[in-house]
Amino acid sequence: MKDIILSLLVGALLGAVFKLLKLPAPAPPVLSGIVGIFGIFLGGIGMEYVLRYFAK
């Protein structure tokens, strides 16, 4: 849980810095981009399980 809170705080801080510097946010601006990132994460986890299964 500590990692999640720390990630949220760092992300909020970076968002504020980017806004102050008038730069675009380094994140997908739409829901489909966020879902895509989540899909990449799930794919990585899934491949871990597949590789572990065949490594037995």
Task: Provide a descriptive summary of the structure in words.
The chain has 56 residues and is mostly helical. Helices cover 77% and strands 0% of the residues. It is built from two helices and no strands. The chain has helices spanning 2-20, 31-54. The radius of gyration is 16 Å and the shape is elongated. It starts with a helix and ends with a helix.
Total beta strands: 0
Roughly how many Å is the radius of gyration?
16 Å
Helix-strand topology string: HH
Query: What kind of sheet is the major sheet?
Result: none
* Class by SSE composition: mainly alpha
Low-confidence stretches: none
How large is the count of helical segments?
A: 2
Average pLDDT taken over every residue: 87
Proportion of β residues? under 5%
How far do the termini sit from each other? 31 Å
Helix content: over 70%
Shape: elongated
